[in-house]
User: Fold these one by one.
Assistant:
Number 1:
Amino acid sequence: MENLIARGMQITPSCCLCNGSEETMGHLFLHCSFVGSIWEDVLSPLRSHGLSMSNFITVEALLNAWPRARGTEFGLKVGKLAPYAVIWSVWRARNDSIFRNRTRTAEQVRKEVMAFLWNWMANDDQRGDHHFRELLLDWVSLIQGIG
Ligand SMILES: [Zn+2]
């Protein structure tokens, strides 16, 4: 243990995204203020449903509670993948900050979330009827079928 500390490993590291709380899985992916703005944006079509990160202790609980989509098949699939894209993008932002000293803004992470979603749909037939800019600019109307 002392050897690890000597090599710079922190035992209870603080969150590198908000520089605040202790970095637990629950904090990093759910309750971090930096990440909260990304969730809020992704969930913006759902605001009336009151899905709040503070209601969840684990990522698994959030995934289990993630609302099913209605509307177009494309919107449905993207809506289903959205929480995974947020988690993946947050993990990348966290690792780049720690290991490469590269920081991102929440807006950059949000755009990456949409880029991952778009790329993950690359082999989907419905993607041809849509444009990447819909994810960036028309997210609410694309996902508003969720409920
Ligand atoms: Zn944080």
Note: The CA atoms of residues 56 and 118 lie 27 Å apart.
Number 2:
Amino acid sequence: MTTEAPSTLEDVLLSYLDNVNEEIQASMALWPPDFTHIQVHEVIGGMLARQATLAKEIAAAPSTWNGHTAPILLRAMADVHINLAWLMLDPPARCLKYISFGLGQAKLELEHRRAQLEGRDPTDQEAAMMDGLEQWIDSQRATFLQDVDLGKWSGLSVRDMAREADCIDFYNYVYTPFSGCAHSMWQHVAAYNLEMCGNPLHRHHRVPMSPDLEPDVSYMLLAAKYWDKSLSVFSSTFGLDRGAPSARKRLLAAISSAADTAEAEGIEDPASENRDG
Ligand SMILES: [Zn+2]
């Protein structure tokens, strides 16, 4: 744990990264594996670690804190959260299902690569890659074998998963709006990559643009919020209590104390235009 009060934005971010690492490690230490259902530890632990990773990747890259890029990463975090919440309603069965779907996808990729060779021998590099993938699948086949499934891994839409897992608001207000950016849909492109032409004779058509945007710390705060949300669902599902203030709480305190210092010194507050998520 970082104890001294960080002052610059860089210090605030570095201690946030430390604190997230500490949170995931402390949480795993409180949650010993149940070897009769080891898939639960692997899948839920792995997904939780992925959520921590995404929060840290965003925190460490202020160049992504803008409307072009942050929503892509935040939408990935929304996916992790809804999947985790749904997995935790019936961990042993759903974690197996998650693994077997993933193995099916890997098997499909292997078949596509073989088909692409069209009868020629693979190069050494191709052969090594395909052998590696095949061994990775086979090493798990005994425990998790299932056919290639081309549908959704859970058999449900993300919306239905969110409804079952009691996080439909998160689906409606986070997952769906950020999907526009992640999939480059009209509602995103029109807002971020087109502007009205100034020529009145041109009947208000839109002109393509690629504006450079200033970093906005509120995107990073959303990432911290989603990581905290996933960790909270995990901790309450498994009855774990780390007994320490969360990385997010410490981050908000550090930002507010840095803002106070900046205000006293007459510097503009980086978090003043905070938006909700
Ligand atoms: Zn024009």
Note: Residues 78 and 174 are 7 Å apart (CA to CA).
Number 3:
Amino acid sequence: MKISKICLAAIMTVACMVATLVLFENAALSQSAMPTNPTDAGKRVFQRGNCMGCHKWHGNGGGGYGGDALSLRKTQLTREQIIETVSCGRPGTGMPFFVRGSYDSVQCFDMLRKDAGDLMPPEANVFLRPSEIEAVADYVIAHIKGKGEPTYDECIAFFSKGSRVCNVYKAEDHSAGAEQTKKAAQ
Ligand code: HEC
């Protein structure tokens, strides 16, 4: 009698452990099966690095505090070149460098700070790790480069929630007024 009680307790314990394990495994599985966009990380870098401060959310650029940023929609640069531009900035322009130590401990375009002289590009407000720079380059290639004019759908996708910023893209094709509002908002 006693023995079977102990047995029962042991069996319950084991069953309980197995059940817990299965639960954990399921949780892990459902987490990894969650649909995630591979360029989400790059989008976060685009926001955190304030690329959008100068290039705008749509990448078409405009007058930012670093001067007129070139259009990333019209860029001809390859992934490698985008990575280099973000890492090292662009000498003689307002495009800042995002890798800590660029032109000091790391040569950029074969230059150190003393070689760059007056052409020394500004230092970004935040430094990015190489993996983050690769992510933002992938984001630019997937969502911005070669995309033509920005659309309402792209705007909503960028800001996720219904953002008033996007209203100017709404009536785009229907009225010249919307086009003007859009120009003013840029
Ligand atoms: C302070 C403003 C500023 C910030 C912040 C900034 N850029 Fe720029 N960027 C510029 C300017 C200005 C240029 C144009 C350089 C030139 O005239 O050649 C440029 C050029 C570029 C180019 C070269 C485009 C081409 O076709 O030659 C790329 C790529 C680029 N930026 C990507 C980025 C990314 C990605 C970020 C964020 C990690 C970023 N930029 C942040 C101002 C900025």
Note: The pocket of heme C is lined by residues 49-51, 53-55, 64-67, 69-70, 72, 75, 77, 82, 85-86, 90, 93-96, 98, 136, 140 (CB under 6 Å).
Number 4:
Amino acid sequence: MKETRTKMAKHIHKCISCNNYTLTEECKCGGKAILPRPPKFSLDDKYAGLRRKVRKEALQKKGLV
Ligand SMILES: [Zn+2]
């Protein structure tokens, strides 16, 4: 029982060498599989970049840059 539990990964990993999704930390190709960032994180990142751009433009309009 214990062995099965440790072997079964709960999260889907993504291989960094072939970009395949796998349930283990080691891909079938022998490459290392990592946990991909949740989609929400990259979305926040995108908005943060946009916000930064908007703020920079606002500062330039005020002549503070
Ligand atoms: Zn792979």
Note: The longest helix spans residues 39-62.
